[in-house]
UniProtKB/TrEMBL annotation:
Gene3D superfamilies given in the database record: Phosphatidylinositol 3-/4-kinase, catalytic domain, Phosphatidylinositol 3-kinase Catalytic Subunit, Chain A, domain 4
Name of the featured protein: phosphatidylinositol 3-kinase
Organism: Adineta steineri
Top EC class, one word: transferase
Domain of life: Eukaryota
Length: 311
C-alpha cells in the first residue's frame, strides 16, 4: 500500500534544519529552481506560527564540510556574544543528509557580484534599501546610510574577515560574499577550508576594495577595533576549536582528511599563540592592510566573472 503525503497541508512536524520550529505545509507557488550547474531548488515552508521558512535543497554536493564550518562559526558567535560582542554574523543552518544531498537555510540577500554588475557601489545599493522606519536616522547623513545599517555592515565585515582567516576559508570571490538588506555581509560555500584554495597564491584574508569603499577613517578604525577585539577573545578559546577539529579527523571530511596530521596545527597557527596580545594584534593589523591592497584577488574576480559568462 502506497501512502500519499499531502505537502500542501499536513500535521505539524519538526523542521529538519531546526527541530524547535514546526511546519505545516509547503507553499507551492514559491518553489523555484536556481540557475546553476546542479540546479538546486528553493521551497518555502509555512510554520505553525504562520511565518515562512525558505530552504534550499541541494543535490550533488557533500555539505558535511559546510555544516561543520557553520557550526564553528555559530560557536564563535556565541563566545563573542557572551563577551557582549555582536559582530552581526549570519550563521545560517545546513543539514547534510548524505554525501550527495542536503538542506541549506535560505537567507534573503544579494551576491556582491550581482550588486556591482548593476553599476551600484555597496553604499548606493544600501541606500536603495532604506525604509520608512530608518529613513529618519540622519546620524550618518554624510553617507546617506542609517546608523544601524552602517554598524551592521562594519561589524559583519570585520567578523567574517576574521572568521574566514582563522578557518582558512578558500575560493573567496564576489559571488560567495552576500549582502542583506540590513547591511549584514556574510559568506557562503565552504568547499575549501584549512588553507586550501583552487587559485594559486591565495591571500590569507579576503578584504576587497569594493568592501572597503564604504569605510571612511572612523569606520575603518571601528572595523579594525572589532577585528582585534574578537581576535583576542577567540584566541583564549583556541584549544576548544582545536579539540573540535580533532574530533573530526576520522570523519572523512574532504579538507580535513586531506592532511589530517596537519589540520590542528594549521588551525592553531592562525591564532598566533606564540605571540603576546600586543604582537598578535599588530600581526593581524599588518595582515589586514596587506590584504586591502592586494592585486591578485581582483585579477581572480575578473577571471571568475569571465568564466561564468561562458557557462
Amino acid at each position: 500500500m502506497i501512502l500519499k503525503f499531502n505537502f500542501l497541508n499536513f500535521e505539524p512536524i519538526p523542521l529538519p534544519l531546526d527541530p524547535e520550529i514546526k511546519i505545516r505545509r509547503i507553499i507551492p507557488e514559491k518553489i523555484r529552481i536556481f540557475k546553476s550547474a546542479k540546479l538546486p531548488f528553493l521551497f518555502v515552508c509555512e510554520t505553525t506560527q504562520g511565518e515562512e521558512y525558505p530552504i534550499i535543497f541541494k543535490y550533488g554536493d557533500d555539505l558535511r564540510q559546510d555544516q561543520l564550518i557553520l557550526q564553528i562559526i555559530t560557536l564563535m558567535d556565541r563566545i563573542l556574544r557572551k563577551e557582549n560582542i555582536d559582530l552581526k554574523l549570519t550563521p545560517y543552518k545546513v543539514l547534510s543528509t548524505s554525501l550527495k544531498y542536503g538542506f541549506v537555510q535560505f537567507i534573503d540577500s544579494q551576491p556582491l557580484q550581482k550588486i556591482l554588475e548593476r553599476n551600484y557601489t555597496i553604499r548606493q545599493y544600501l541606500q536603495t534599501k532604506i525604509t520608512v522606519t530608518n529613513a529618519e536616522d540622519t546620524t550618518l547623513a554624510e553617507t546617506g546610510i542609517p546608523r544601524e545599517m552602517m554598524d551592521a555592515y562594519v561589524k559583519s565585515s570585520a567578523g567574517y574577515c576574521l572568521v574566514t582567516y582563522l578557518l582558512g576559508i578558500g575560493d573567496r570571490h564576489l559571488d560567495n560574499l552576500l549582502l542583506r538588506d540590513t547591511g549584514q555581509l556574510f559568506h557562503i560555500d565552504f568547499g575549501f577550508i584549512m588553507g586550501r584554495d583552487p587559485k594559486p597564491l591565495p591571500q590569507a584574508m579576503r578584504v576587497s576594495k569594493d568592501m572597503m569603499e564604504m569605510l571612511d577613517e572612523k569606520r575603518l578604525s571601528d572595523f579594525l577595533r572589532h577585528c582585534f577585539t574578537a581576535f583576542i577573545i577567540l584566541r583564549k578559546h583556541a584549544n576548544v576549536f582545536a579539540n573540535l577539529f580533532s574530533l573530526m579527523l576520522d570523519a572523512n571530511i574532504p579538507d580535513i582528511a586531506l592532511e589530517r596530521d596537519k589540520t590542528v596545527k594549521k588551525l592553531l597557527d592562525k591564532f598566533r599563540l606564540d605571540l603576546d596580545e600586543e604582537k598578535a594584534t599588530s600581526y593581524l593589523k599588518d595582515l589586514i592592510y596587506s590584504s586591502i591592497g592586494a592585486l591578485l584577488p581582483q585579477v581572480y574576480d575578473y577571471f571568475h566573472n569571465w568564466s561564468l559568462a561562458f557557462r
